Amino acid sequence: MARRTCVFLVASLIALALGIAASSQALAQEDDAGGEGQTTVRAALTGFENNLTPFTITFATGRPDDLLMLVYDSLFWSQTKEDPEAWLAESAAPSDDYRTWTVKLRPNLTWHDGRPLTAEDVKFTFDYFKDAPPGRWTHHVTDVPPYDSSEVVDERTVRLRFAAPAPQFKILPGADLPILPKHVWEDIESPGTATEMLPVGSGPYKLTRIVPDQRYRLEANEDYFKGKPLVDVLELPIVRDTSAAFQALRTGQLDIVTEDVPPAVVERLEESDQIEVHRGHDFASTELRFNARKEPFDNPRVRKAISLAIDREALVERVLQGDGEPGNDNWVHPESPWALPDGEHERDVERARQMLDQAGFRRRGEGVRESADGEPLEFSVLVSSLDAEALRALQLVERQLREIGVDMNTESLDPAALRQRTTPGPQGPPQHDAYLGTFDWHAHTDPDTLYFFFHSPGKKGIGAIFTGWSNQRFDQLVERATTMELDERKPVLHDAQRILAEEAPLITLWYREDVTAYRPAAYSGWIDDSGHGLFTKRSFLEPYAEVGTADAVVDEATDSWWWLVLVAVALALLVAAVLLIRRRRSASEEQSFE
């Protein structure tokens, strides 16, 4: 048994050494670093997004949309605003019934390969997304608003027609859909498999090199219509280990980490006079999502009772250490222009007990409640095994629910298994009880997001993916809102949020703040693009950002030293394990001769 343990230890240490070497290699490779006089920013990514096209990204990083939009552009920017800024578009004018939008492009737009970007490309993009396999952007063309057809008026003007009024066009899809070069994509029949090519976009950066699973290199588009970007080179190593990423930031190997700073690391980083920690609105939420098509969670009393029992302020203080806001019952982020103005979370443990009594779950003493048939009121919550904050939060929720006689268990899974267990498939709806998930800025700032995410399962929206909840009155409200002018739809969306709050198909635990750490000596032009954070295209453009104060080239001696230390530690542990095996083997042989 001891020998097996040692063999396992050796194998683990070998894996550790290889993992450290891989991370160190990703950080150390600088053979393409910026030349003399060029500014370089090194930003850690937590995952590999293939070749950064709208059809091949894997959503392995925290903000793949913003990464993609360094290479591509949309007609407007950004969807977090009620009236987004004209970007590729110079203007967009609707018809009286909002079914037709006439878009005028800026003059002299070009693709990265020098070809002109014209109205033909815009028409092609909408047609291509309409026919493409379902994905992140397609439902803003095929569902709401329902794109019908378009015509090119002249080189800079395109007329887009929709099958229903589209008053929100400038927000979605106008400020969201990446415009594609027709000459690149028109012959690609399976866009999801086009992972080998370097993408051609119109954005401020060109993707010039990919080392799969290790790093990206992006170079400034000197002909960008808003001016040459302020940083010449973006080196993006992939560092999946968050702890390693922030350690590399502290030692100067990285200039910024694109993921949020974990609460346990914030104070240590703030103590450094070389690092700045920025806080802003991330428009993100973490929530417990019930399977509302499965007993007992098809009963709104049960769901609401569990919601009433959870102390969300305690979760924010103890798990996020204050870097966030308690979740509201209406779900929509309070800073979103579409949020219910008086949204809040109601906590009432006594009312929770009463609702469970009414739902037929009785409690004897301090034990777990039971149904009339003697079935205990217990359920499991699926969660990613890599999400330390979520695991900690669910431990606290388990204790809070015991107060009302509900037994909750946490089941941690690797991300792939979690997706498989919670995604509807050919076998029908998933059979889990509940799971913990997150929604990002795109969800909370979309004026049609309530329609998409919570409409009853069927042909409309994608609610079947998240909760499977169904409410006829809610459906009527959100369907009607999709064709209303923006100001008129707000009261309707507010009514829909009140229904969502009372029926509780999901419980929003918190809205996490965007907490980003960077080294200002490398680059200080970062701006907080609300909802997007710091690592976004506006941070690199003259009209928005300040010029960085220093080049971010890493000292090669420091870089090599850090890599050698990590490998030396791993090898030392490996040698120790081998010696332990030999010692135990000798002891075993001595015993066999006695």
Labels describing this entry:
Dipeptide-binding Protein, domain 3, five-stranded mixed β-sheet, globular, alpha+beta, disordered N terminus, seven-stranded mixed β-sheet, disordered C terminus, D-Maltodextrin-Binding Protein, domain 2, 594 residues, Dipeptide-binding Protein, domain 1, 18 helices
What does this structure look like?
With 594 residues, this protein is an alpha+beta fold. It has 18 helices and 18 strands. Strands 12, 13, 14, 15, 16, 17 and 18 form a seven-stranded mixed β-sheet that branches. It has a five-stranded mixed β-sheet with strand order 8-9-10-1-11, covered by helices on one side. It is globular and about 75 Å long.
Structure, briefly:
The protein has 594 residues and is an alpha+beta fold.
Write down the overall mean pLDDT.
87
**Broad structural category:** alpha+beta
Largest sheet: 7 strands, mixed
Number of domains: 3
CATH topology of the largest domain: Dipeptide-binding Protein, domain 3
At CATH level 2, the architecture of the largest domain is Roll
Question: Stretches where pLDDT falls below 50 for ≥5 residues?
Answer: 1-22, 547-572, 575-594
The CATH H-level homologous superfamily of the largest domain: Dipeptide-binding Protein, Domain 3
Q: Share of helix among residues? A: 25-40%
Number of helices: 18
Name the CATH class of the largest domain.
Alpha Beta
Count all strands and give the number. Answer: 18
Overall spatial form: globular
Strand content: 15-25%
The radius of gyration computed from the alpha-carbon positions, rounded to a whole number of angstroms, is 26 Å
End-to-end separation: 20 Å
